[in-house]
Specification:
The chain contains five helices and no strands. The chain is an all-alpha fold and about 100 residues long. α2 packs antiparallel against α3, α2 packs parallel to α4 and α2 runs parallel beside α5.
Length: about 100
């Protein structure tokens, strides 16, 4: 982006729209980001967004379940589990099944 700042500006606007103008509730958005971070082993994103998720009421038990890549159960809402399932399927299979 150093050589093409206009591209950086466009990408920043895209990121802002995706984060703040989408239809996901803030809690679910953070859970989605954490599911991606866990699948990609991205410790920086995990550290940043796990604090945000905690502040939005995501229990530590759910954070641990997402990080471990296992079943999402105790402490999670149905919506939490659905978001994690969708993210995992998209990243692992490249598409959503019917």
């Amino acid at each position: 982006m150093l050589y093409a700042p206009h591209i950086g500006e466009v990408l920043e606007r895209l990121g802002r729209v995706l984060r703040y103008e989408g239809s996901l509730l803030p809690r679910l958005r953070e859970i989605a980001v954490l599911a991606v971070a866990a699948e990609a082993s991205c410790t920086y994103e995990w550290a940043l967004h796990s604090h945000a998720a905690s502040s939005l009421g995501v229990p530590v038990s759910v954070l641990s379940q997402i990080a471990a890549g296992g079943e999402i159960g105790t402490g999670a809402t149905a919506a939490d589990a659905c978001v994690v399932g969708v993210v995992r399927e998209l990243l692992r299979a490249g598409a959503l099944s019917d």
